[in-house]
Amino acid sequence: MDVVFHIKICGMTNVADAIAAARAGADAVGLNFYKKSPRRINEATAKNIAASLPQGVVRVGLFVNTPAREICRLYDELPLDLIQLHGDQPPEFLGQLGGRPVMRAFRLGAGGIGLIREYFDRCRELRAMPQMILLDALVAGQFGGTGQTADWEQARACTAEPDRPPMVLAGGLTPMNVTDAIRLVHPDAVDVASGVEDDCGHKDCNSIGAFVAAARRGFGFLG
After folding, report:
1. Is the residue at 2 inside a domain?
2. Under DSSP, is residue 103 helix (H, G, I), strand (E, B) or coil?
3. What is the CATH number of the domain that holds 141?
4. Does residue 32 form part of some domain?
5. Alpha carbon of 92 to those of 145, 164, 166, 201: distances in Å?
6. What is the number of structural domains in the chain?
7. Range 212-218 average pLDDT
8. Are strands 197-199 and 167-169 parallel, antiparallel or unpaired?
9. 137 or 112: which carries more pLDDT confidence?
10. Looking at residue 149, what is its pLDDT?
């Protein structure tokens, strides 16, 4: 079954923040397993957060260069609904995940979207396309959660690519700019972490609510 969401709050570190995001209307949350991230959580915390979320909220696990066997184990045991791949995994890596749904993250840099096209071409050859893609800002040595704004013009160009998977816009989004970002880029979904925090890893409930409301205005729907 296809995984679909519009508004994702990433980098959840506790149950209270995850419940607040769901109540505000976010339909996806991100659980970060990257060892070098300040938002990294252990397996027990991830299990508690996943169990606390209501039906219909997509549970996304974020991994950076994690072995496929470990990703598959966590996906099955927590359980998760979607695997978010950051890092250097080649298209061939998707085939090692046994058909589990994947959202592949790309950091937009000077190379534009050419590298993304090449990645898709290889995925099509392997019949291992990601179910979604996520576009983030390029910050040397870091894999998301930086608060740096992605290149919206490049992201818009990627949106116009034919036969692409649904695209999620991330990178420097806040309650103040997400409406404009959606209207310019036309993504299928948006993703925020630092833009709704009062401290790294700790979400602000008012900011979450404001972000969800602003994103809904951008997408043109309420409820």
Report:
1. no
2. strand
3. 3.20.20.70
4. yes
5. 26, 18, 20, 32
6. 1
7. 96
8. unpaired
9. 137
10. 80
Provide the pLDDT for residue 112. Answer: 66
Q: Is position 101 within any domain?
A: yes
The CA R_g of the chain, rounded to the nearest whole Å, is 16
Give the residue numbers spanning the domain of 186. 7-219
Closest CA to 175 of 54, 56, 50, 24: 24
Enter the tokens of residue 2: 């296809």
153 three-state secondary structure: helix
Cβ-defined contacts of 216-220 (< 8 Å, 24+): 216/7, 216/25, 217/179, 218/178, 218/179, 218/180, 218/181, 218/182, 218/183, 218/190, 219/6, 219/182
Helix-helix angle 68-77:43-52, to 10 degrees: 40
Peptide bond into 162 cis (omega under 30): no
CA dihedral 60, 65, 66, 67 (to 10 degrees): 130
Residue 154 domain-assigned (yes or no) = yes
Which residues are the active-site residues? 10, 136
Q: Which DSSP string do the residues of 157-196 spell out, in sequence order?
A: HHHTSTTPPPEEE-SS--TTTHHHHHHHH--SEEEESGGG
Contact (Cβ atoms closer than 8 angstroms) between residue 132 and residue 176 = no
Q: Is the dihedral of CA 205, 206, 211, 217 positive or negative?
A: positive
